[in-house]
Amino acid sequence: MITLRQIEGFRAVMVTGTVTQAAKMLDVSQPAVSRMISYLEYEVGFKLFTRNNRQLIPTVEGRAFYDEVERSFVGLDRLVKAADAIKDYRRGQIRLITIPSLAPNLMVDLVARFAKAYPEIAISIEVQPSQRVFEWIVSQECDIGLSTLPIDNPAIETRPVIHGEAVCILPEGHKLAKKREIKASDLEGEPFITFKASSVFRQMVDEAFLNAEIYRNMQIEARTTETICGLVAAGLGVSVIGPTFPSIDRRAGIAVRPFEPAISIELMLLYSAQKPLPLAGRRFIEILDDYVGANLE
């Protein structure tokens, strides 16, 4: 059986030209190198060298065999470098998924930090409604998810990241923008821009107004927080949205105020319970924790 050590001995002789130099290269004795060559010749069934005094001259077959050895060593070297890169988190991929309200702010900030720290790792980002986030994590189509609604599924590991409260958003200059806090009763009869009926958050908001016995003039429905913010900025109504982590206070044309009664939202980290996180995934979570500690707590 051909061994890797025999191949190393053969290659060392080809590279250095002598058994003496090959022995130094491999840090073994000259007889050891000679035995490696003899054993290899026996295994391959042909002479690799002709002997001329102390000099070894490669045969035609020996040179052809060396060409194959070099190709193999180049491939092996690539494998070693790839393994080192993976170990050091310099190569690989990470597949992320989040909900629309987090995609343009929090996820962008996190991905920017991750890409700067690990530029050789490929990043894939999906944006889906919360239920789809859960489905994609369960099916292992994505490695890590960020969502703001609770889930109880044994196939998913969850971890709270940060707690937040829903807020009321108003057009700048709106008469209610002078108030520090907006109560449900303040929005009686106001044109109200709401999420689609299929939204779980919509159901939470509807329940808050129903319990307060407040009528809203719901003229416009939209699916995403970004769309609702744009409609409010255009002066088409007011709304209640979940925390966007970080705050949307910077958006032109919108006033953001705390909302009463409080609607508590938890930002959750999600990943599969059925397989270990990839190395890149663990690094992403480290960046998430650092970011939360520095910006959101």
What features would you describe in this structure?
This protein has 297 residues and is α/β, with parallel strands linked by helices. The protein has three domains: 4-87, Arc Repressor Mutant, subunit A (Orthogonal Bundle); 93-162 and 267-296, 3-Layer(aba) Sandwich (D-Maltodextrin-Binding Protein, domain 2), CATH 3.40.190.10; 167-262, Periplasmic binding protein-like II (D-Maltodextrin-Binding Protein, domain 2). Helix content is 43%, strand content 25%. It contains nine helices and 13 strands. It has helices at 4-16, 19-26, 30-44, 60-87, 103-117, 130-138, 200-211, 225-233, 279-296, and strands at residues 49-52, 55-58, 92-98, 121-127, 144-147, 156-165, 167-171, 182-183, 191-195, 217-222, 239-241, 254-260, 264-272. Helix 1 packs across helix 2, helix 2 packs across helix 3 (30-44) and helix 5 packs across helix 9 (279-296). The longest helix is centred in the first third of the chain and has 28 residues, at 60-87. The model has no long low-confidence stretch (mean pLDDT 85).
